[in-house]
Structures are given as C-alpha cells and as structure tokens.
Amino acid sequence: MAEPARNRGAIDLLRERFGARLSTSAAVREAHGKDESYHAPQAPDAVVFAHSTDEVVEIVQICAALGTPIIPFGAGTSLEGHVAALQGGVCLDLTGMNKILSVNTEDGDCVVEAGVTRKTLNEYIRDTGLFFPIDPGADATLGGMAATSASGTNAVRYGGMRENVLGLTVVMADGRVVRTARRARKSSSGYDLTRLFVGSEGTLGIITEVAVKLHPVPEAISAATCRFPDILSAVNATIATIQSGLPVARIELIDEISVAGINKYSGLNLVEQPTLFLEFHGTEAGVREQTQRFGEIAAGYGGGAFDWATKTEVRNKLWEARHTAYYASLAMYPGKKGMPTDVCVPISRLAECIAETKRDLAESGIEAPIIGHVGDGNFHTLLIFDPDNPEEVARCKAFNERLILRALAMDGTCTGEHGIGYGKLAFMQAEHGEAVSVMRAVKLALDPHNLMNPGKVVRI
Amino acid sequence: MAEPARNRGAIDLLRERFGARLSTSAAVREAHGKDESYHAPQAPDAVVFAHSTDEVVEIVQICAALGTPIIPFGAGTSLEGHVAALQGGVCLDLTGMNKILSVNTEDGDCVVEAGVTRKTLNEYIRDTGLFFPIDPGADATLGGMAATSASGTNAVRYGGMRENVLGLTVVMADGRVVRTARRARKSSSGYDLTRLFVGSEGTLGIITEVAVKLHPVPEAISAATCRFPDILSAVNATIATIQSGLPVARIELIDEISVAGINKYSGLNLVEQPTLFLEFHGTEAGVREQTQRFGEIAAGYGGGAFDWATKTEVRNKLWEARHTAYYASLAMYPGKKGMPTDVCVPISRLAECIAETKRDLAESGIEAPIIGHVGDGNFHTLLIFDPDNPEEVARCKAFNERLILRALAMDGTCTGEHGIGYGKLAFMQAEHGEAVSVMRAVKLALDPHNLMNPGKVVRI
User: Fold this and answer.
1) What is the CATH number of domain A100-216?
2) Fewest 10 Å CB contacts: which of A143, A444, B270, B318?
C-alpha cells in the first residue's frame, strides 16, 4: 500500500516534529486500523507514537489546524471497529505512555498513563495488598478500557470502569488539557465530566491519564466450578443468587460448547456441560458462608458438586481459561471467524432472553458458543461464520440484529461492555431514540469539526 | 410583594393552560425562591405545579418560546441557593409528580416520578425486602436528589445517587423528552447521559422520572455508637477502618458540640464526647465479625465500649437524631444562623484536614459543630453566625473559603454532596480550571438560551 496523499500537510508537520515516531509504513498503518473484531479494518494515513500529554497536545493541535482526523489507539483489542480510520487521518498510539504515575495505598487509588495495561498495573501493585478488579479478558490499556467503558468478570461485585474511574486527564479537540476530577471519593461539584468521557471512545477527546480506585485484596478468595444439567438451570441459579443479595465476586456462565473449547485450548478436563465459574471474596468465615448459601441455591436448580480451586495457581489457571474462551472457541472452528454479540438485560429477563436466543440459533443454523457475565444480565454469543460465504455473514448479522431488538424489547442494551464503535452505530437510534440528538449536540459542542475518531458512537 | 411584570407573556399563557395550578401569590413565590441555606433567596415571578412529563413539556415549550427562565423545585431542601430565581422566571414545582410508576423486585429497581420523596419510596417498598439507601438527611425528592447528586450516611457502602440512578426521563430546554438509559445494570452504549444529568441541578433539563437501584434489606443490621477521647482519634479510627476494607455501612462522626445538640433536640443521653455512629449490614455471622474487627481497630485509638442498638426502634431513633443534627445544632444558638460547609478529601488527608480546620475555627473565633460522613472523607462544619452582624458573616465566608482551598490543595472537592447552586459558583474555577470551559460548552449546547435554572453550576 503506497503512502496516501490525504492529510499530507499534518503528516509532514508531525514527521518534522516526531521523526521516527511518525510512521507511514503500510504494515504499521494496517496494524493500527484493525481491532479483534470481524468488522472491516481501515488503516490510518499515518501513526504517531506519543510519550506524554504535552506531545498529545502538539499532535492534536497540528491535526486540528489542518482538519485531520485523529484516532487514539491502545492495545487494539476492541470489538466493534473502534480504531478503524473510517475517514483516514492520524492514529495516535498511546502505548508509549506507560508510566504508573502514583499509587496511593492509603486512599486505595492510583494514577496511570493511558497506555498502562491492566496486567502491568496489577503486577506493579502486587505487594500493596490492593488490586485493580476490572478485567475485560484482553490485557487492554486503562485508557482504552476507560474509553470503551469496559467491565468483565468482576463487575458484578466491583463495578466496571464507570464505577472505578476517579478522574481522567483529557486532551480536547482544540488541544486544551482538562482534568475531569480530583481524587476525593465523592463530589457533587459541577457536571460529571469523568463519566462523560468514560465510554466516549475517543470521540470527545483523547484520554491521556487515568485515576482509578484500587480494592483491598480479600483475606479469603475461593473459586469453583459448578455444572448444571442445562443452560437455563445455570442461568436461573444465577438469577436466584443475585436476587438473594449474595455478594458473589464472579459468576460466569460457560456453555457446553465453550467448555469443550476451553478444555482443548487451555488443557483443562472439565465435564462438557453448562457450567458456572464462580469466585467468592471475603473473610474466611464470610467466604465459607457465601459458598454454603450458593450451594443451597444451586442444588435447587440441579447444580452438581463444586470443583474447588482455592489455591492461587489453580484459580489463576481457571480464570486464564475463562479469559481465553473467545480465542478457544475460535480455535475450534479453523478457517472460520467469530462475530461476538453483547446484549445485557435486566436480570429478571435473562433466562427468557437466553432461551429465545438459543431457539433462534437453532432455527438459524448458526453455531455459537455462549458465555456470559450472567450476574449482570450480560451474555455473549460468538457467531461462527465462514468469511468467504456472504450468505453466512448475512445470516449472522440478521441474527445479531434480532438478538439486539429482543434485548431492547426487554429494557436491555445492545452492548453491555464492548461499546458502539462503528459496528453498532445502526442500533443507537433504536436503543436511545431522542437521546441520540442530545449525544450529537454534546459531540458537536466538544468536537465541532468532527475530527476525534469520526464515524464512531454518533453519526454526524 | 406585587405581582411582577417580568415574564408576563409566559405567565399569562401558563395561567390560561393551568388555571389555579399557576400561582403568582407572594407567599407561594417566596416559599419557592428559598431553600434551607443562608444564601439570599430570590422569588420566581410565578410558580406552576406540574402533574406529568407531558405538562412539563408544555411548560418548557411556553417558557422557551418567550425566553422565560425555568427553575425546577422539589422539597426545597438544597443548601447552596439552588432554587433562587436569580433571573426571575417560572418555578416548576414537581411535588405533584408523586407516583411510584413501577417496582421491579426481581431486578431490584424501581421507577418513580421526580416528586416522590425517599421516605415515601421506602415506606412503599417496605414489604418487598428491598430498600433505597440514599439518605441526605432531609426527606428530599428523588428528582432533587438526582439533580444535586445527593448522598448521605450510607454512601460509604452503597454509593450516592451517581452510583444508584439507573436512568432518567428528562425534558430538554426545547421540550424534547429524553430517556437516558434502559434498565440493564450495565451498558456501554453511547455517552453516559444519566451521569451527565445527575448533579446538573436543573441547568441542562428538567428531570421528571427517576429509575433507581434498590438493595436487599440485610439479614442482620446492627448499629452502635462509640466514643473517642478526641475528634482526631475518631477520625483516625475511621481511616483505619476504611483502609482495612471493612465493609461498614455507615460510619458517621459527631463531635462533642453536635452530641450536646442532639441530646437536647432528640432527647438522647449520649456522653458529650466525639462519637462515631456506626452501622453494620450483613449476615448474622458477618455482622458479628465486622463488629468485632471494628472494635479491635477502635480500641487502638482509645475508642470506648459500644453502645448497641440492634432493635429497630432504637436504631431508628439514633439515625433520626443523626439526620436532625443540622436542626439540632441550630437550635442550640437561638437567633443565629448556620453556614454549612461540605468539603471532601482523599481519606488519607482527612485527619490533617479536620485538624487544620479545628485550629482555624479556634483562631477565627467561630463556633461550629462538626459532623461528617467520614468514611467517604466528607465532613461538614456548621458555622454559627449572627445574621445581623456583617462582620460575623464576612468572617464565616472567609473561613469557608480557606476551608475549600485547604481541601482543594489536598486533592479534594469544594462540595462532597451539597452541590454548587450559586453559593459555590465562585470556587468552580479553582477546583476545575480548564474543565469549567468544557462544562460551559455542554451547557450551551443543551440550553443555548440559558433558560434552565440560570446562574447555577456554571457562569454563562
């Protein structure tokens, strides 16, 4: 791919300023225009590697002056085409901003640059007695996780990024630098800009620093797997658990297809039945009590005996297997691709939503492992399709649309944690109605020339 | 006070449409231009009583067409002049919108009209096994609590309105009706409009319906008071409790002056020493365990024996006394007024902040009971002053300014839960810097003619 002529002015200025940290090589550009999704990638015209907020300001000012779009890039693990340079422009790679700026153990918080990944952070704070609970599976950057409002397995107990970001440093479309909040745990001082930028997917500004809450490592942690005769029994046991107020830390559904995939991919020997992966956090006595109560609930839905994993290594292996379920499922279908879905519904509707979805899958002749953060009412199907077969692609897309409309009809959302990118843009109106016009007004107020990751979240 | 000539056009149209539900009587107007604060009230030109979202739309459209400001009004219990009609206009009284629209016990949520108060809601759901934990002391409306991002004693465990509002129905400045979110517990679908309107104090739109999370009533609840030799010992015990990860549900500081006030006002017999009011929620065993651990921590800071209140009536009496502490303190100083302060700092700085504040109070010769939601790093002083003595007023204002700058220097906020209104407008720049310009851009995008509660939160 030849170097594009578009946006030459900005690229020339950026090269002058950043030298070798500005790349227009085809390989670098292509790697920065695609994420882990099935959506068509689109390479940016150039990639610039920033090392500080001040550098981001310079880059944004150059691009703003010349009308060049900017797309921020972290780990590239988004799932709805978030990083595709739909209108060309410059990709701003933030992975070089990987410093942990402060860890405040007494307050249980820390401030990191946007390119720090969740695993790097947890490794760094290992000896503090604190941990950062948000784990979207991939080892994403905290900037990217904030930008997509990520969550993951622990969200049922600890919340997602929305609940755990204390404040952000953001470079606005005109180069102004804004700090959205201070480190106090509570504030009612002005509009909640922190939450406005969490989930804004780079469309309102570039997140360069993230302050997050950290949580005390529980005195006792106990993980287990629990098999059920069928998927609805597992889901109903989950619903009853949540409704009982049991403060389970993780409660993850893995259907029998996904269990098979995990066994093969991660070398486990789980019985290939619908299974809940669970984790309980608390004091020794508290964890024992929670476990016993969950056991009573599960038994009422045909749940089998627990397989316990109290040792750290066994527990880590289990959750590592859970986190690679996406790749494990894909590995079962060589030559195929996967289309992940991501609806979330009020928990009272979850069993019904999954039952109808299973029926729809069967009727549509689509193979699709199901996994879910079921404690939140959030589940994923991974629709397996042959990328060279347009009919299969269309069938999966039609299925996803039906699934989303089903979730919306149940007062749910088209995306529990993956975000909109451009892959779900078409569903914004159905989900939000008139609220889309309010989002558009906010976007135009903060990015009047539509240069910040254009074509994502809201249509302009 | 004669009926004002300002905004006559809108008022005539509203009277035609709403008849007796439009009032221009001096008494009604004056009652709607003041809150519970010391800030100068300002009566609106008229008050209209709305009974539905559709009526709010009609009112907003009439006012928008004629350029008349609108100020929403709930219980009138705000503390920073939020409801003063600084530029005249129409006060929109929402207390007639007092229907509970749905209670979804299986999902642990409910939807109410904006005028429902927290006590009404908790009374209504009494038999469901669920409760709504946010209690700002006053029996505020849920619309008002959302608008000011209220919190209160339970926030340390359950969060405030920011964490507990699931979605809002909002009438925008041009009469559009927006629903900010559906009932799913998680979503990363578009900008977080819910959190944008929480804390927006009526300046971006009128909240007419509120969906909130409900929580299971704990199996066991245990409340206690624990005395300390001095205020810093109580604060340090709190800090140690929070840092240990103990999931205390309430941990409230009451200084010796406030204890005296409460004893007199609520007929209690507490020893007049700095005291923590505590509550533990959990299973029977869990509450026992939490209590024991707190006891060990407290003993390390000279904490005395607990006075227990496990019986519901005794517990209610205790918290009722806590909630009336503001009025109890005022009652100790007949003829005087009180200026409540509301800083919140990272908990590691709380003892230092309170110590410096006590010193400043002594040096300034100001009497001021101190109470605090200390588990969040949030505390209030109630500065007692003679309203007829301008020097005293000025001294208290200067003290409040020093207190706020002290909190900001500790990475804290000028208001943990009372909001900005017009009383704290002067501190927005010091706290937020460049972020104020972002807030202003959002305000102008959603309310271009500055008719929604003008003069509050951001200067236009």
Assistant:
1) 3.30.465.10
2) A444
- SS3 of A31, please? helix
Nearest CA to A53 out of A196, A177, A239, A230 is that of A177
Of A183, A186, A215, the CB nearest to B376: A186
Nearest to B246 by CA among A246, A283, A164: A283
**How far apart (Å, rounded) are the C-alpha atoms in residues A227 and A236?**
13
Residue B89 contacts residue B7 (beta carbons within 8 Å): yes
Q: Which of A196, A424, A431 sits opposite B192 (nearest CB)?
A: A196
Residue-wise pLDDT tens digits, B324-355: 998 999 999 999 999 999 999 999 999 999 99
Bigger pLDDT: B312 vs B42 = B42
Alpha carbons B379 and B350: distance in angstroms, whole number: 9
Q: Please report, for chain B, the start and end positions of each structural domain, with discontinuous segments joined by +.
A: 8-93, 100-216, 220-328, 333-432
Distance from CA of A267 to the nearest CA of B (A): 32
Minimum-distance CB partner of B286 among A108, A196, A286: A286
The whole-angstrom distance between B263's CA and the closest CA on chain A is: 30
| Region at B450 (left for phi over 0; alpha for psi -120 to 50; beta for the rest) | left
pLDDT digits (tens, 9 = 90+) for A106-156: 999 999 999 999 999 999 999 999 999 999 989 999 999 999 999 999 999
- The three state secondary structure string of chain B is CCCCCCCHHHHHHHHHHHHHHEECCHHHHHHHCCCCCCCCCCCCCEEEECCCHHHHHHHHHHHHHHCCCEEEECCCCCCCCCCCCECECEEEECCCCCCEEEEECCCCEEEEECCCEHHHHHHHCHHHCEECCCCCCCCCEHHHHHHHCCCCCCHHHHCCHHHHEEEEEEECCCCCEEECCCCCCCCCCCCCHHHHHCCCCCCCCEEEEEEEECEECCCEEEEEEEECCCHHHHHHHHHHHHHCCCCCCEEEEECHHHHHHHHHHHCCCCCCCCEEEEEEEECHHHHHHHHHHHHHHHHCCCCCCEEEECCHHHHHHHHHHHHCHHHHHHHCCCCCEEEECCCECCHHHHHHHHHHHHHHHHHHCCCCCEEEEHHHCEEEEEEEECCCCHHHHHHHHHHHHHHHHHHHHCCCECCCCCCCCCCCHHHHHHHHCCHHHHHHHHHHHHCCCCCECCCCCCCC
Whether the Cβ atoms of residue B184 and residue A344 lie closer than 8 Å to each other: yes
Structure tokens at B331: 């009652």
Name the fold adopted by A333-417.
Alpha-Beta Plaits (3.30.70)
A51 to each of A34, A94, A96, A262, A358, how far by Cα in Å?
22, 7, 5, 38, 47
CB contact under 8 A, B289 and A286: yes
Q: Are A194 and A166 in contact (CB under 8 A)?
A: yes
Q: Which of B107, B188, B373 sits opposite A148 (nearest CB)?
A: B188
What is the second-level CATH architecture of the domain B333-432?
2-Layer Sandwich (3.30)
Please indicate whether, in this complex, the C-beta atoms of B416 and A378 are within 8 angstroms of each other: no
CATH topology of domain A220-328: Alpha-Beta Plaits (3.30.70)
Residues of chain A found within 8 Å of residue B188, distances taken between Cβ atoms: 148-151, 160, 199, 415-420
A5: confidence class by pLDDT, cuts 50, 70, 90: low
pTM above 0.95, yes or no: yes
Q: For the domain bounded by A8-93, which CATH number is listed?
A: 3.30.43.10
Question: Could A107 and B347 be called an inter-chain contact, meaning their C-beta atoms sit closer than 8 Å?
Answer: yes
CA distance A426 to chain B (A): 12
Same fold, B220-328 and B333-432: yes
Residue with tokens 């927290």: B118
